[in-house]
Design brief:
Length: 600
């Protein structure tokens, strides 16, 4: 392992034996973009070529942390990541479930898909700005901003007296989730080599193998005890406490690095800060996607809105804004959030597309899964939680296995193709086995198959994109792939919401008969708490069948989206995974070493 942290990508391998502080000092002014000499040149010269990215502060700081911390520092960072992932996954598997009961209590269950989609959009478009902030300010500083969003969201949601206040709090929650997801993924990728990347990335989700089962008991106890408000509110204490471990570790080692001269203080002007984070690009990227997806979501949950002219106008305007992002990033942005060369990089383009389309199916089939299982199979909140998160547990396990296969065979394309095929077969089976007549075993088996395919695909697309860019762009390319996955999830929720809104009332009327009142239809449509007929009655059987009809339409839509995933996976470049950090900065010597190893 090379001792020089700036020499190519050998620094951040999982097998690193340490980084030389002295060597960093010698190379410092070549690597640190914010020292006076560099800053002066930067202001005078033209914009640096996009194909020659400059090392960013966030990357320099994390390398400096490795340098002064050594193995001990790396262990502290992994321990901090473990703490924050435990609370992150516990939050994911409880607060999201309380959303079902919150919307039901506010008699707004029909708005569940809209809330899910809005949260997915905010989480998606929030990732690139937070990734840029972590590059400009540092990883630890970005964590502090993220935890602040979380605390605000918990307070607003737990104390909400109306659906509007709850939804407002959920906006901050979505921003907190965006930041936590991208920062956790970025740091583990900072510390790992190409060959280990898939495994290291999925090691983050080991807590998810336990938290869904624990959280199911927590949710069941909270819902039937202290209530969902207290269930959310307790995270206002738990989240900052667990996050403090990784934050303190990063800040303490950054301070030590400053003391030995590895990090220089820089006073950013408002202009230079906005330039560094590419504020214009962020506004175009986030605004364009918001203008496209928000009207689609609103129209999907009220079918008559498709006939209103403002829906089409906003979608067209959003498309124009997104198209204008390309010339802006090419000719105006000094630190582009989406470098134009990404559009010519097949690995990046296909990773974003695969993540988006794959998550359309996931978002569609999971938006109403919790509600459907409680209605059509009389599941308790605990059992519905088990069913919902079986997919995620299988995904975590298959992701870890995929990472080990990638380490062993130094490749990923055909593993990804196999995952795409499994995913498509899983949706085909789901059409047959996700009904009100399916057994409990069949319901869980479908979730396991889906999770297996999803774990493979999600691992492949992250690694394929990350190894195709230099370390300085690691956070932003990761955020773009995650942008694609969360946008897909949002579109899937919108699809589910459109089907739920457009079909449930009519299916209830068909199965309950012409004598059913509009008031009863409205109550069954908007809430599942205290409105369902008793289990076993003819009326309840009719309601079960209506909900299963709607779920059947949703699974068919998901199957249609699964087909192009197979074809896209076949187009992925079959690149070799070396022991460096990425293929762009891998030195010739490391390539030759990898070549020799591959023949052993």
């Amino acid at each position: 392992m090379l001792d020089d942290v700036w020499a190519g990508s050998s620094t951040c391998s999982l097998s690193s034996d340490g980084i030389s502080v002295e060597k960093m000092k010698q190379e410092f002014h070549k690597a640190w973009p914010q020292c006076p000499e560099k800053a002066m040149d930067f202001e005078v010269n033209e914009k640096p070529p996009q194909d020659e990215p400059v090392e960013v502060a966030g990357v320099t700081k994390i390398k400096a942390v490795e340098a002064v911390g050594g193995k001990k520092g790396k262990y502290f960072m992994y321990a901090g990541l473990a703490m924050i992932m435990i609370i992150f996954e516990l939050d994911n598997s409880t607060v999201g479930t309380y959303r079902n009961f919150a919307t039901s209590d506010f008699n707004q269950l029909g708005m569940l898909a809209t809330l899910n989609t809005a949260a997915s959009i905010i989480t998606a478009i929030g990732k690139p700005p937070i990734a840029k902030l972590s590059d400009v300010l540092g990883r630890g500083e970005a964590y502090i901003i993220t935890v602040t969003f979380y605390i605000l969201s918990y307070i607003l949601c737990a104390s909400s007296k109306s659906f509007d206040t709850y939804a407002g709090g959920y906006v901050f929650y979505a921003l907190g989730q965006a930041g936590m997801a991208i920062l956790n993924s970025t740091i583990v990728s900072d510390l790992s080599s190409m060959r280990w990347r898939g495994f290291a990335y999925n090691i983050l989700y080991i807590p998810f193998l336990v938290t869904p089962w624990v959280s199911a008991f927590i949710v069941d106890s909270v819902v039937h005890g202290i209530g969902w408000r207290w269930g959310i509110g307790m995270f206002a204490i738990l989240m900052p406490f667990c996050a403090s471990f990784i934050i303190i570790t990063l800040l303490v080692f950054q301070r030590r690095a400053k003391n030995v001269g590895l990090i220089l203080n820089e006073r950013l002007t408002i202009y230079s800060f906005c330039s560094r984070i590419d504020l214009g690009g962020i506004m175009l990227l986030s605004g364009g996607f918001a203008l496209v997806l928000i009207p689609i979501t609103l129209a999907a949950t009220a079918t008559d809105r498709w006939s209103t002219p403002w829906v089409d106008a906003l979608i067209v305007l959003g498309a124009i804004v997104l198209v204008s992002l390309v010339p802006y990033e090419k000719y105006l942005a000094r630190h582009p959030i989406v470098p134009v060369r990404y559009f010519r990089t097949m690995s990046v383009v296909l990773s974003v597309l695969l993540g988006c389309i794959d998550n359309i199916g996931y978002g569609a089939t999971h938006t109403y899964l919790f509600v459907w299982s409680m209605v059509s199979h009389n599941f308790s909140p605990r059992d519905a939680q088990f069913l919902t998160y079986t997919n995620g547990v299988a995904q975590a396990l298959s992701g870890i296995g995929t990472g080990l296969l990638m380490y062993r065979y130094r490749t990923y394309k055909w593993i990804g193709v196999a995952g795409a095929v499994v995913r498509m077969v899983g949706y085909g089976v789901m059409v047959r086995l996700r009904t009100n007549e399916s057994s409990v075993g069949e319901l869980f088996a479908v979730q396991l198959v889906q999770g297996l395919g999803s774990g493979i695909i999600e691992t492949i697309i992250i690694v394929a994109a990350q190894i195709s860019v230099p370390h300085a762009e690691l956070a932003q390319v990761t955020s773009l792939v995650m942008l694609g996955t969360f946008l897909g999830n949002g579109i899937g929720s919108a699809v589910a919401g459109a089907i739920y809104t457009g079909q449930l009332r009519s299916r209830l009327r068909v199965h309950l008969g012409p004598g059913v009142s509009e008031d009863q239809l409205t109550r069954l449509y908007n809430s599942i708490t205290g409105t369902l007929p008793d289990w076993g009655t003819a009326e309840r059987t009719a309601v079960n069948q209506a909900y299963s009809d709607v779920m059947g339409y949703i699974t068919i839509a998901a199957l249609a989206f699964a087909v192009p995933i197979v074809f896209l996976s076949l187009l992925l470049p079959n690149k070799k995974l070396g022991d460096g950090h990425n293929l762009v900065q891998e030195s010739p010597s490391s390539d030759s070493v990898d070549e020799k190893k591959s023949h052993i």
